[in-house]
Amino acid sequence: MPGSIPGSTSGSTHGATKAMGAMTVGGLVLVTAYTVALGSNGWLWFGWVVLVLLTLAMVVTQP
């Protein structure tokens, strides 16, 4: 396919999106556990929200 990046397929994009989703869920578990054990940390929650937004952007822009 002309103009495509060698080695890139829609399957690998789907795999990256699934991995990002798994990291987002794992991040939620970790941030929640930290909050329960040591108290809330606004920077951790901010980072998790940014991760959610990046994951949503990947899902929306997926071909």
The chain-level structural class is: mainly alpha
Strand percentage lies at under 5%
- Average pLDDT taken over every residue: 85
The number of distinct helices, counting runs of at least 4 residues, comes to 2
Please summarize the sheet with the most strands. none
Number of strands: 0
The dominant shape is elongated
Q: What percent of residues adopt helix (DSSP H or I)?
A: over 70%
Low-confidence stretches: none
Oligomer: single chain
Distance between the termini: 16 Å
> Radius of gyration, rounded?
16 Å
Order of helices and strands: HH
Overview of the structural elements:
It is a single chain. The chain has 63 residues and is mainly alpha-helical. Helices cover 78% and strands 0% of the residues. It has two helices and no strands. The chain has helices spanning 10-38, 42-61. Helix 1 runs antiparallel to helix 2. The protein is elongated. The model has no long low-confidence stretch (mean pLDDT 85).
